[in-house]
Design brief:
The chain is of the alpha+beta class and 80 residues long. It has one domain. Helices cover 16% and strands 18% of the residues.
């Protein structure tokens, strides 16, 4: 399957590909480089599942690294 790249370097994926990935507008797709090329992975983050973190993160005191958060052990309800 081929997709066209526009002059602005944008790509439109066929609807069936996006449906298979389970992504919708606003979601992110991760491109992971491997030995045979790139792999697409959906990176859906349901903001409602981050609600337990409210009040634990302080504005202006460093940044929040989602990848570091994912790698630490947490309750299953906080995992994606």
């Amino acid at each position: 399957m081929f997709v066209k790249i526009t002059a602005k370097r944008q790509v439109t994926f066929p609807a069936r590909v996006l449906a298979a990935l389970g992504v919708k507008p606003g979601d992110r797709i991760a491109l992971e480089e491997g030995p045979d090329g790139f792999i697409l992975r959906a990176r859906n983050i349901e903001r409602a599942r981050l609600a337990p973190l409210r009040g634990k993160l302080r504005r202006g005191e460093g940044s929040f690294d989602l990848e570091v958060f994912r790698d630490r052990p947490h309750a299953r309800t906080l995992r994606d």
